[in-house]
Write a structure and sequence with these properties.
Chain lengths: 86, 86
């Protein structure tokens, strides 16, 4: 069971930090056209619900992982909006 | 607690189905350049670990959501590889 929990923590960390290289990629290339708005908005809605879920259970790993993911998604959406006009 | 579980189910469904519009977007535009390989690979590694986690706990919602997400990610990565040469 301890290994299973560890797996969950690593899994959550990976899916969260994965958005860091996406932010850097967008920042460097000044392009986000190939990221679908429907994906970004649907995924963000899911992350917000995960955050509410985590807060209701006061499950800190769920809260932290989803709060960080949400911030990274907001940055990506801000960059997409900014670069769209170019 | 019932509402909390429902929140979790809807959250999981949203983060999983969000990749469907991304697949359609890539398919229609024939472009995936703005999706970072580091994001796709790191996120996929996380999803694989979530899948192993779900299998170890035999938690069907975790297994199904992550299996579907992994299939969609593999499609996106296949399209990115295919369109890269254009």
């Amino acid at each position: 069971m301890r290994l299973t929990s560890l797996l969950g923590f690593i899994a959550g960390a990976l899916t969260t930090v994965s958005f860091i290289p996406q932010v850097l990629h967008a920042w460097r290339s000044k392009r986000c056209d190939d990221l679908s708005w429907a994906m970004l908005l649907t995924f963000s809605a899911g992350v917000v619900l995960w955050l509410v879920y985590g807060i209701r259970l006061w499950a800190m790993p769920v809260i932290v992982a989803n709060a960080v993911t949400l911030v990274l998604l907001l940055i990506i959406m801000a960059l997409k909006t900014r670069y769209a006009s170019r």
